[in-house]
Amino acid sequence: MPWDNTQPSEMNKEGVTYEELQLRHLKRQNKRHPTNKSREFTLQIIVIILVIICFFLLLSTRILGYMYFQISSEQKIQDMKDTSKNTFSPEVEGHSSPSVSPPCPGKDSYPCQGKWSCCGKDCYYFSREEKTWNESVKSCKDLGSSLIKIDSKEKQNFIQSKIKYYFWVGLHRKGAALKWLWLDNSPISRKLNFQQTMSDGKCGYIKPEAIVTAACSREFNFICEKQFSCLGN
Fold it and tell me: Which residue of 46, 68, 103, 185 is surrounded by the most CB atoms within 10 Å?
């Protein structure tokens, strides 16, 4: 049987073709590796950046939380200081009754019914609780009295000498264009040290420096006033 010379040649061609395909495949793989490495490097950079961002966010959150805590603590301390200021003078605080016992110039001062301190027939109750203006009006009515009316400079000086903080008085108005009136509808005297500090304030309170205005919804102590005699109690 004659030898077929074409078979080795064809086999050689197929073998060469296969080898060439393998080489091409290897070349392609070699070309792909740098791209994969580049992608991995890019992902690593992104991960590092995200970790850094998260770290700074966490740090910022802790710093803000610490600052908020500090501010809250300072505010609480200030509120406690303000509360401690809302007291009477040392000579008054030593009084055994829950109200003050203001001295009366030229008259004897005496306690009355456990809550009131009187100068003659003029008796005052200095509250230790804080309420709105309207609530203060009601509380005084419940005590058979009214929020204090200050109708003279001497009376204003006397009351101011006995307080260290803010107390509601019976001064109010119903609108921005209307006059300031006491609860008995009498106008405020021009001789008083009166300062209108708020355009929308419709109620008056007294502090050691002057009679001032504020929103009626704020909460202050209050001073009730009435006239009666209980000498010997």
Answer: 103
